[in-house]
């Protein structure tokens, strides 16, 4: 494989950049040390102790770029190929992450499969789903339940006009409230973000707008009946 092949592989996949060879020996390589301003031109010349690397777009991101797709791809790729010579894991400020691949790494046929990202941007759907759900659960526990109660109260004036219902809503557990939220959210609304874009607090507000006093009352009544049924079953089993 030569530099031209690397450039061909990069089309629709990422950027061909340069970096110092010593980055290959370090475990704390920084994305800032990859020079993106020296795009290969005629001759593909490099300076002394400098090499060309391919940085795939769908294997990099940060707090301000990329999404959970890129983060999942990065994790899956490292799990499979971190021990392959010429695979460089890059970090940086604002939780930047990226992968740089040398010519040596790209001679590995499995790693050349990174070009499949042109047609299918997700390397492992199961990993992505697991990460997505983990982030959703984390945000719900941290602030999603509180935000949803606040949004319901704001849109339906529960604390002012339906005090008893509001008291019952504040008494149910966050896990039970999550079931109501899932029922109320729009069918095509999914939690797809890495850390904050289209996050739980945005979706809870939309779900609250689609709710009603009757829907809350029905849900709480059903919850009471379900809990009473469980309690009765427990008594029968003792």
Protein described:
By secondary structure, the chain is an alpha+beta fold. It has two domains: 3-123, no CATH class; 127-237. Helices cover 51% and strands 11% of the residues. It is built from ten helices and four strands, in the order αββαββαααααααα. It has a four-stranded antiparallel β-sheet. Helix 5 (125-156) crosses helix 8 (174-184) and helix 5 crosses helix 9 (200-209). It is elongated.
What would you report as the Rg, rounded to the nearest angstrom? 25 Å
Mass-distribution shape: elongated
Distance, first to last CA = 72 Å
Number of domains: 2
Q: What are the low-pLDDT stretches, counting only 5+ consecutive residues below 50?
A: 192-199
Q: Averaging pLDDT over every residue, what do you get?
A: 82
Proportion of residues in β-strands: 5-15%
Q: What is the helix fraction of residues, given as a range? A: 40-55%
Oligomeric composition of the shown chains = single chain
Largest sheet: 4 strands, antiparallel
Spatially, the strands of the biggest sheet line up as 1-2-4-3
Tell me the number of strands. 4
Structural class by SSE content = alpha+beta
What is the string of SSEs from the N terminus onward?
A: HEEHEEHHHHHHHH
Number of helices: 10
């Amino acid at each position: 494989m030569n530099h031209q092949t690397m450039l061909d592989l990069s089309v629709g996949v990422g950027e061909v950049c340069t970096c110092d060879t010593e980055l290959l020996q370090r475990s704390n390589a920084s994305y800032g040390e990859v020079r993106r301003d020296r795009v290969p031109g005629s001759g593909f010349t490099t300076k002394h102790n400098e090499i060309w690397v391919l940085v795939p777009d769908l294997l990099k991101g940060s707090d301000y770029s990329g999404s959970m797709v890129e983060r999942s791809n990065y994790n899956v790729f490292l799990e499979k190929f971190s021990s392959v010579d010429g695979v460089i894991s890059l970090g940086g400020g604002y939780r930047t992450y990226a992968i740089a691949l040398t010519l040596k790494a790209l001679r590995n046929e499995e790693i050349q499969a990174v070009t499949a990202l042109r047609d299918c941007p997700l390397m492992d759907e199961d990993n992505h789903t697991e990460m997505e759900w983990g982030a959703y659960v984390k945000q719900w526990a941290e602030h999603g339940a509180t935000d949803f109660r606040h949004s319901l109260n704001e849109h339906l004036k529960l604390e002012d006009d339906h005090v008893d219902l509001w008291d019952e809503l504040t008494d149910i557990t966050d896990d039970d409230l999550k079931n109501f939220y899932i029922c109320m959210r729009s069918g095509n609304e999914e939690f797809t973000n890495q850390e904050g874009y289209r996050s739980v607090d945005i979706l809870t507000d939309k779900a609250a707008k689609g709710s009603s006093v009757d829907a809350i009352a029905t849900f709480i009544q059903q919850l009471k009946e379900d809990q009473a049924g469980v309690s009765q079953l427990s008594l029968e089993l003792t």
